[in-house]
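Consider the following assembly input.
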Amino acid sequence: MSQFWKPGTDRPRPCLVDDEEGGVLFYSTPPPSSSYGYANLEKQRQRLPVFKYRTAILYLVEYHSTVIIVGETGSGKTTQIPQYLKEAGWAEGGRLIACTQPRRLAVQSVASRVAEEMGVKIGEEVGYTIRFEDKTVQGVTKIKFLTDGVLLREMMDDPLLTKYSVIMVDEAHERSISTDMLLGLLKKIQRRRPELRLIISSATIEAESMSNFFRTRKKNDGHATDDNGLKTEPSILSVEGKGYPVEIHYVQEPVSDYLQSAVDTVLLIHEKEAVGDVLVFLTGQEEIDAAVQILVEKASDKTSHFSGLLVLPLYSGLSRSDQDLIFSQTPKGKRKVVISTNIAETSLTLEGVVYVVDSGFSKQRFYNPISDIENLVVAPISKASAKQRAGRAGRLRAGKCFRLYTEDYFVKEMPAEGIPEMQRSNLVSSVIQLKALGIDNILGFDWLASPPPEAMIRALEVLYSLGILDEDAKLTTPSGFQVAEIPLDPMVSKMIIAADTLGCSEEILTIAAVLSVQSIWVSVRGKHKGLDEVKLRFAAAEGDHVTHLNVYKGFLQSGKSSQWCYKNYINYHAMTIRKAILAGFFSHASQLEEYSQNGMYKTVRNSQEVYIHPSSVLFRVNPKWVVYHSLVSTDKHYMHNVIAIDPSWLIEAAPDFYQLKRPNPAIF
DNA sequence: GAGCACTGC
């Protein structure tokens, strides 16, 4: 079938897919609820020639500007569709087929699988691009895998993405900020480039809303076409996965303590169920460590049959070597139990899992645009997530999923989908990116899901105060455009630009790098004291940022710690460094309450009550004025990464901001 | 004297 239809050529319409082996694949017209076709890959393996699936894909892509693929895990859509398109000639004439993934690791592994299947070396006909790594060759690469964020960045140079004939957006149902932005922008591009084909791969639950979003003209008319006879009505093709069935078990009554319940369920599985590893979903490190401890104690009793349990924690804060333990072969006669955060839901796949225990909760970030505070809270997961978690039990053989909530709750109360990241995040980075792409009417942008207007306004306000947007909400020259080019939080970018004139770029770049990673410290259970002592060795009076700089310098000098006598040098530079930080973070200034006994500060912007986090070197030092990098909210609002400042620097850094009573109304 | 779901450019 490699000589299949050449796109754009004039030829008779292929007939509907007629399957002589029993109608496994069919194409119905007119489509019931805009759904076409159904390909069953599992059956196909035994008795359906591969070209049936290919036929359906190519037919739909040929005649529809947008195709939505509802593909379960293991359906092979990600690896097969790009190959079909290439063979059918979609990558000819110097244009490429692009396939996005939301994660770097997925990009790499999918690309190498496809290269292997096609018998080519990666970086030639099949390539990939992720940040810091470009394995493509111009003129040679035909299928290009990339993260959605990279494709967004590419739009800054080539807004219509003219290099590509087909763009496939995989895992669109995850609704990451980048994916949502990309889909909104792709819809715009389609108006200018009607020949561009989009393939959106999504879970069942999101398919209809995706379809509605891309349905552009002549609503309610399934046969709407554009001038070229191309159907503008998106088509939906569903492809079954080859995962094994997973039996779902619910609790009879709601549980009051899901941690305890998870532990009990693991013990019960070990007692009653056949061999096979267990994966438990809890919400965070603290919970996971607690559950691990309880189970390890049970397992340490050599006389009980629980000694067969091999219990391992899994979360991103673990060191790489600890994370790798979960992939080790389960010793004979043992049952591996991995207790994990959401990292095992999408990012990491454990192959031997047969039993899943689902607490029904995960930690989720919520942003309050009014207070400008991001909260990390334990919240109920969605049905989509629950399904994904359960699916983790069916990779090896038929499995079981134990849900620690009632069926009634699942059916009646659990939300179908999670809230898109777009609607619970700070939008400063997204807004500047859209502005850089020439989208001026941000509030009128056609979002798959509109973010709260308050968040949008807050983002515009912040960018205006940073001098990145002018009074007409357009990017300023050169500052605004420079900041948009730098792939960092705009406040950090502004700091970097300011460092240039203050002559401390090297130091500020180091600090920016440290601020861009989650933490430079590795968490080791029960070794908090040691870590605190090590930190003290690097502590700088100016605050955490300069302390990070010390750490980095120490790293460069690795092994020579006793000879460090940089103190004067650091003091010399500390002032200019702090001013550069302030150029970006002036709006994060806080003042110590004069009569405060407990180190209470109030933010300058909205008099929010905040405290210095105990991990800071300035904890209990309590300088009169500080600027923080971020707020972390638990029982109190804690300032993370704090430097001491002189309040006069604030006026110097942002004279408008500190005199402005109300932000300029023109930007709304 | 407290705490870090997960990604990405």
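The mean pLDDT of chain A is 81. Ask yourself how this observation constrains the way the partners meet.
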